[in-house]
Amino acid sequence: MARKTGSDGKKTATDLRAAATALFAKHGFAAVSMRQIAQKVGVQAGALYLYTPNKQALLFDIMQQHLDGLLGAWETEKLPDSATPLAQLQRFVSFHIHYHLDRADEVFIAYMELRNLLPENLATISETRRRYELVLEGILAAGQKTGDFQISDCKLSSYAIIAMLTGMTTWYRDQGRLSLAEIEQVYQGLVYGAVSGAKTKS
Amino acid sequence: MARKTGSDGKKTATDLRAAATALFAKHGFAAVSMRQIAQKVGVQAGALYLYTPNKQALLFDIMQQHLDGLLGAWETEKLPDSATPLAQLQRFVSFHIHYHLDRADEVFIAYMELRNLLPENLATISETRRRYELVLEGILAAGQKTGDFQISDCKLSSYAIIAMLTGMTTWYRDQGRLSLAEIEQVYQGLVYGAVSGAKTKS
DNA sequence: CTACCCATTGAACAAGTGTTCAGTTAACCT
DNA sequence: AGGTTAACTGAACACTTGTTCAATGGGTAG
Fold this sequence. Notes:
homodimer; mainly alpha; Arc Repressor Mutant, subunit A; Tetracycline Repressor, domain 2; 2 domains; DNA-binding
């Protein structure tokens, strides 16, 4: 046996990414072997090296593709700069929730496996992530300027809000107690309250 | 060479926990070998098995000790139930921030290595964590009842707040732009706003 | 001084690791 | 029909993995 009937390099390449993503998310990068991935793809381990130079590159590609997709999707879904900061913020919250829930595995990997990246790859990924954080930071700063938001520190607040939103992926389940629309409402309220300041000062 | 001069079982046992904690946090459970841990302790790998039955138990012990310590510390630091919900919440935020920042490695492990636990161990850990989440959920429910807080869903809000606070550990550095006291102020404000509702409804 | 225990070594075990490569076959092109 | 290329196998490489255990020497009580 060598080449299989109906084999297709393009398909195997995407299957590889999909299998690796699922396994890395479930067990962690270091705990998954190339042979496990190969089995999931339905191929011998050696064949994987036609589609990735090595295991590390596989991890890096998955992360980078995810973050590029995230930034790209935001560019097409964001409101124009002329919109009010509050409207932009609401759009961001909604976008972040939906994009992340639809890609729970990739999100998990992008947040958990940073320490398994080579220093050079880590630098690239960190920079891309920083660009995304700056999106929210920019919205907060705009609202701070117009007086719509009461924020003591835009950078910290953006970190806090992103952490809060991303945390959803760890507990969200389809068929849970609340619908996704209800959950989004709760989070919109929390974020709105956090940036608007409270009625009375403590 | 067999026994070393000045050797002490009690000390080696605590050294083992410390070394494993540091290494697991830095590289991840699966990426760290017993030989690496042994080297950090200053001992051969075989000797570790006098102090832990296996690698898995080592991970479980570290997590369980951390979560038990967290719950225990809260019991001694929390305000009496007679205190106002807002005061209790502020105490919780302050406690959570300080306790977690002082134990960045343990926190990291407790959140990242859940998937490397055996199912039975995972169940135990999850239950302990749930008890901690219920602390905050209880405070929020109390404030909801008195009307001090405007919260649409206590469970979700507790998840969101804990995620927001715990996220700090991923970026906080001593000697950063802001002092810890300043950071705490920012977070107190964000949490207060989130639970108090905003001035105007969107 | 002797006997015992505690703490440790160092080698060994079987299994698994990422990665390479000569060989083999299916699919496509002429 | 024949040749070329793309896709893949299966074995091999040198190492690392978690874990066990007989052997060994320091520390201490009698």
